[in-house]
Protein backbone atom coordinates (compact mmCIF):
# COMPACT_ATOMS: atom_id res chain seq x y z
CA UNK A 1 0.00 0.00 0.00
CA UNK A 2 1.50 3.40 -0.98
CA UNK A 3 2.84 5.50 1.89
CA UNK A 4 0.87 8.54 0.71
CA UNK A 5 -2.37 6.56 1.03
CA UNK A 6 -1.45 5.38 4.53
CA UNK A 7 -0.53 8.92 5.54
CA UNK A 8 -3.76 10.28 4.08
CA UNK A 9 -5.81 7.62 5.88
CA UNK A 10 -4.14 8.43 9.20
CA UNK A 11 -4.81 12.14 8.70
CA UNK A 12 -8.48 11.44 7.99
CA UNK A 13 -8.71 9.32 11.14
CA UNK A 14 -7.26 12.20 13.18
CA UNK A 15 -9.63 14.65 11.53
CA UNK A 16 -12.57 12.39 12.33
CA UNK A 17 -11.51 12.19 15.98
CA UNK A 18 -11.59 15.99 16.09
CA UNK A 19 -15.08 15.97 14.56
CA UNK A 20 -16.16 13.32 17.08
CA UNK A 21 -14.98 15.47 20.00
CA UNK A 22 -16.74 18.48 18.46
CA UNK A 23 -19.93 16.43 18.11
CA UNK A 24 -19.71 15.34 21.73
CA UNK A 25 -19.19 18.94 22.85
CA UNK A 26 -22.24 20.21 20.98
CA UNK A 27 -24.28 17.20 22.15
CA UNK A 28 -23.76 18.05 25.84
CA UNK A 29 -23.75 21.85 25.42
CA UNK A 30 -27.51 22.48 25.72
CA UNK A 31 -28.34 19.95 28.51
CA UNK A 32 -25.26 20.71 30.61
CA UNK A 33 -25.31 24.44 29.88
CA UNK A 34 -29.00 24.71 30.74
CA UNK A 35 -28.61 22.90 34.06
CA UNK A 36 -25.55 24.92 35.06
CA UNK A 37 -26.97 28.32 34.11
CA UNK A 38 -30.38 27.65 35.72
CA UNK A 39 -28.58 26.80 38.96
CA UNK A 40 -27.12 30.33 39.02
CA UNK A 41 -30.32 32.06 37.91
CA UNK A 42 -29.39 32.43 34.24
CA UNK A 43 -30.50 30.84 31.00
CA UNK A 44 -28.54 29.53 28.02
CA UNK A 45 -30.14 30.21 24.65
CA UNK A 46 -28.94 29.44 21.15
CA UNK A 47 -29.02 32.32 18.71
CA UNK A 48 -30.61 29.91 16.21
CA UNK A 49 -31.97 26.64 17.60
CA UNK A 50 -32.80 25.44 14.09
CA UNK A 51 -29.32 26.27 12.80
CA UNK A 52 -27.54 24.42 15.62
CA UNK A 53 -29.88 21.40 15.29
CA UNK A 54 -29.17 21.21 11.55
CA UNK A 55 -25.42 21.56 12.23
CA UNK A 56 -25.63 18.64 14.69
CA UNK A 57 -27.37 16.46 12.10
CA UNK A 58 -24.75 17.22 9.43
CA UNK A 59 -21.85 16.81 11.86
CA UNK A 60 -23.06 13.49 13.27
CA UNK A 61 -23.78 12.11 9.78
CA UNK A 62 -20.28 13.17 8.67
CA UNK A 63 -18.64 11.41 11.62
CA UNK A 64 -20.58 8.21 10.89
CA UNK A 65 -19.70 8.39 7.18
CA UNK A 66 -15.98 8.94 7.81
CA UNK A 67 -15.97 6.25 10.50
CA UNK A 68 -17.28 3.67 8.06
CA UNK A 69 -14.57 4.52 5.53
CA UNK A 70 -11.56 5.13 7.76
CA UNK A 71 -12.64 3.70 11.11
CA UNK A 72 -12.00 5.20 14.55
CA UNK A 73 -8.90 4.54 16.60
CA UNK A 74 -10.13 3.98 20.15
CA UNK A 75 -6.63 4.24 21.57
CA UNK A 76 -7.43 6.69 24.32
CA UNK A 77 -9.70 6.25 27.30
CA UNK A 78 -11.42 9.59 26.64
CA UNK A 79 -12.44 8.51 23.11
CA UNK A 80 -13.71 5.21 24.47
CA UNK A 81 -15.86 7.05 27.04
CA UNK A 82 -17.21 9.42 24.36
CA UNK A 83 -18.23 6.55 22.08
CA UNK A 84 -20.02 4.76 24.92
CA UNK A 85 -21.73 7.82 26.42
CA UNK A 86 -22.74 9.66 23.26
CA UNK A 87 -25.83 7.47 22.53
CA UNK A 88 -27.89 8.28 25.67
CA UNK A 89 -26.56 11.84 25.78
CA UNK A 90 -27.77 12.43 22.22
CA UNK A 91 -31.29 11.37 23.23
CA UNK A 92 -31.19 13.67 26.25
CA UNK A 93 -29.97 16.45 23.97
CA UNK A 94 -32.84 15.76 21.57
CA UNK A 95 -35.36 16.16 24.41
CA UNK A 96 -33.87 19.55 25.36
CA UNK A 97 -33.91 20.76 21.76
CA UNK A 98 -37.50 19.66 21.16
CA UNK A 99 -38.61 21.31 24.40
CA UNK A 100 -36.84 24.50 23.30
CA UNK A 101 -38.39 24.49 19.82
CA UNK A 102 -41.39 22.53 18.55
CA UNK A 103 -40.54 23.10 14.89
CA UNK A 104 -40.44 20.00 12.69
CA UNK A 105 -36.98 20.79 11.18
CA UNK A 106 -35.53 20.88 14.72
CA UNK A 107 -37.19 17.58 15.68
CA UNK A 108 -36.02 15.82 12.50
CA UNK A 109 -32.47 17.18 12.82
CA UNK A 110 -31.91 16.15 16.44
CA UNK A 111 -33.45 12.73 15.85
CA UNK A 112 -31.08 12.18 12.91
CA UNK A 113 -28.21 13.15 15.19
CA UNK A 114 -29.42 10.74 17.91
CA UNK A 115 -29.65 7.84 15.42
CA UNK A 116 -26.13 8.57 14.16
CA UNK A 117 -24.76 8.75 17.71
CA UNK A 118 -26.37 5.41 18.59
CA UNK A 119 -24.79 3.97 15.43
CA UNK A 120 -21.37 5.16 16.62
CA UNK A 121 -21.87 3.40 19.95
CA UNK A 122 -23.02 0.17 18.29
CA UNK A 123 -20.22 0.03 15.72
CA UNK A 124 -17.28 1.47 17.63
CA UNK A 125 -17.95 0.99 21.35
CA UNK A 126 -14.97 -1.01 22.59
CA UNK A 127 -16.47 -2.69 25.67
CA UNK A 128 -19.32 -5.04 24.82
CA UNK A 129 -20.67 -4.91 28.39
CA UNK A 130 -20.71 -1.11 28.60
CA UNK A 131 -22.08 -0.92 25.07
CA UNK A 132 -24.97 -3.20 25.99
CA UNK A 133 -25.70 -1.24 29.16
CA UNK A 134 -25.58 2.09 27.32
CA UNK A 135 -27.81 0.94 24.47
CA UNK A 136 -30.31 -0.59 26.92
CA UNK A 137 -30.42 2.74 28.73
CA UNK A 138 -30.91 4.50 25.40
CA UNK A 139 -33.88 2.28 24.54
CA UNK A 140 -35.47 3.01 27.93
CA UNK A 141 -34.88 6.74 27.41
CA UNK A 142 -36.24 6.68 23.86
CA UNK A 143 -39.74 5.66 24.97
CA UNK A 144 -40.55 8.60 27.29
CA UNK A 145 -38.61 11.03 25.10
CA UNK A 146 -40.58 9.89 22.05
CA UNK A 147 -43.88 10.32 23.90
CA UNK A 148 -42.71 13.69 25.25
CA UNK A 149 -41.68 14.83 21.76
CA UNK A 150 -44.94 13.69 20.19
CA UNK A 151 -46.97 15.50 22.87
CA UNK A 152 -45.07 18.73 22.30
CA UNK A 153 -45.47 18.46 18.55
CA UNK A 154 -49.22 17.86 18.84
CA UNK A 155 -50.14 20.21 21.70
CA UNK A 156 -47.21 22.60 21.75
CA UNK A 157 -48.00 23.99 18.32
CA UNK A 158 -51.31 25.33 19.60
CA UNK A 159 -49.33 28.12 21.26
CA UNK A 160 -47.34 30.44 18.99
CA UNK A 161 -45.25 33.20 20.52
CA UNK A 162 -43.95 36.06 18.40
CA UNK A 163 -41.83 39.01 19.46
CA UNK A 164 -43.61 41.95 17.84
CA UNK A 165 -41.58 44.80 19.33
CA UNK A 166 -38.29 45.35 21.14
CA UNK A 167 -37.48 48.47 23.16
CA UNK A 168 -33.91 48.97 24.42
CA UNK A 169 -33.17 50.89 27.65
CA UNK A 170 -31.21 54.18 27.35
CA UNK A 171 -27.97 52.60 28.61
CA UNK A 172 -28.42 49.51 26.44
CA UNK A 173 -28.29 47.18 29.44
CA UNK A 174 -31.90 45.94 29.19
CA UNK A 175 -34.39 45.39 26.41
CA UNK A 176 -38.13 44.91 26.70
CA UNK A 177 -39.85 42.46 24.37
CA UNK A 178 -43.52 42.76 23.53
CA UNK A 179 -44.70 39.20 22.85
CA UNK A 180 -47.86 38.06 21.11
CA UNK A 181 -48.89 34.68 22.55
CA UNK A 182 -51.46 33.15 20.18
CA UNK A 183 -53.27 30.14 21.70
CA UNK A 184 -55.62 29.48 18.81
CA UNK A 185 -59.25 29.02 19.81
CA UNK A 186 -58.37 29.69 23.45
CA UNK A 187 -57.41 33.27 22.65
CA UNK A 188 -54.02 34.37 23.89
CA UNK A 189 -52.09 37.04 25.73
CA UNK A 190 -49.91 40.07 25.20
CA UNK A 191 -46.78 39.76 27.31
CA UNK A 192 -43.91 42.08 28.13
CA UNK A 193 -40.63 40.50 29.21
CA UNK A 194 -37.52 42.43 30.19
CA UNK A 195 -34.16 40.85 29.43
CA UNK A 196 -30.60 41.95 30.08
CA UNK A 197 -27.76 41.91 27.60
CA UNK A 198 -25.65 39.09 28.98
CA UNK A 199 -22.73 37.06 27.67
CA UNK A 200 -22.73 36.53 23.91
CA UNK A 201 -20.64 33.70 22.44
CA UNK A 202 -21.88 34.04 18.82
CA UNK A 203 -23.54 30.59 18.79
CA UNK A 204 -25.27 31.00 22.16
CA UNK A 205 -26.10 33.62 24.76
CA UNK A 206 -26.22 33.45 28.55
CA UNK A 207 -28.70 35.88 30.07
CA UNK A 208 -30.51 36.29 33.33
CA UNK A 209 -34.01 34.86 33.35
CA UNK A 210 -36.41 37.41 31.83
CA UNK A 211 -38.64 39.43 34.12
CA UNK A 212 -42.29 39.35 33.11
CA UNK A 213 -43.60 42.79 33.96
CA UNK A 214 -46.90 42.76 32.09
CA UNK A 215 -49.57 40.33 30.89
CA UNK A 216 -52.62 41.60 29.04
CA UNK A 217 -55.24 40.56 26.52
CA UNK A 218 -54.42 39.06 23.15
CA UNK A 219 -53.97 41.64 20.39
CA UNK A 220 -53.38 44.43 22.90
CA UNK A 221 -49.86 44.93 21.56
CA UNK A 222 -51.26 46.74 18.50
CA UNK A 223 -52.14 49.86 20.54
CA UNK A 224 -49.66 49.42 23.37
CA UNK A 225 -47.62 52.42 24.49
CA UNK A 226 -44.27 51.28 25.83
CA UNK A 227 -41.06 53.21 26.51
CA UNK A 228 -38.22 53.55 29.01
CA UNK A 229 -38.55 56.40 31.51
CA UNK A 230 -34.95 55.85 32.59
CA UNK A 231 -32.42 53.00 32.75
CA UNK A 232 -34.42 50.97 35.28
CA UNK A 233 -38.03 52.08 34.81
CA UNK A 234 -40.23 50.79 32.00
CA UNK A 235 -43.58 52.42 31.23
CA UNK A 236 -46.35 50.25 29.76
CA UNK A 237 -49.67 51.97 29.03
CA UNK A 238 -48.86 54.77 31.51
CA UNK A 239 -47.98 52.32 34.31
CA UNK A 240 -44.39 52.34 35.60
CA UNK A 241 -42.50 49.11 36.28
CA UNK A 242 -39.21 49.19 38.14
CA UNK A 243 -36.75 46.63 36.86
CA UNK A 244 -34.83 44.53 39.35
CA UNK A 245 -31.10 45.03 38.90
| Sheet with the most strands: spatial strand order | 2-3-4-7
Strand runs, count: 10
Counted up, domains total 2
Query: Helix proportion of residues, in percent?
Result: 40-55%
Low-confidence parts, pLDDT < 50 over ≥5 residues? none
Major sheet description:
4 strands, antiparallel
Rg, Å, rounded: 23 Å
Span between N and C termini?
A: 67 Å
| Total of helices | 5
Mean pLDDT: 83
Task: Determine the strand fraction and express it as a percent band.
Answer: 15-25%
> Quick one: overall form?
elongated
Order of helices and strands: HEHHHHEEEEEEEEE
Structural class: alpha+beta
List keywords for this structure.
single chain, 245 residues, alpha+beta, 2 domains, four-stranded antiparallel beta sheet, three-stranded antiparallel beta sheet, 10 strands, 54% helix, elongated
Description:
It is a single chain. The protein is α+β, with helices and mostly antiparallel strands. The protein has 2 domains: 3-156; 159-197 and 210-242, no CATH class. Helix content is 54%, strand content 24%. It contains 5 helices and 10 strands; from the N terminus they run H-E-H-H-H-H-E-E-E-E-E-E-E-E-E. It has helices at residues 3-39, 49-70, 77-100, 104-124, 128-155; strands spanning 42-46, 160-168, 174-182, 188-196, 199-200, 204-208, 211-217, 226-230, 233-236, 239-242. The strands form 3 sheets. It has a 4-stranded antiparallel sheet with strand order 2-3-4-7, with no helix packed on it. A 3-stranded antiparallel sheet has the order 1-6-5, with helices on one face. It has a 3-stranded antiparallel sheet with strand order 8-9-10, with no helix packed on it. A hairpin with a 5-residue loop joins strand 3 (174-182) and strand 4. The chain is elongated, with a radius of gyration of 23 Å.
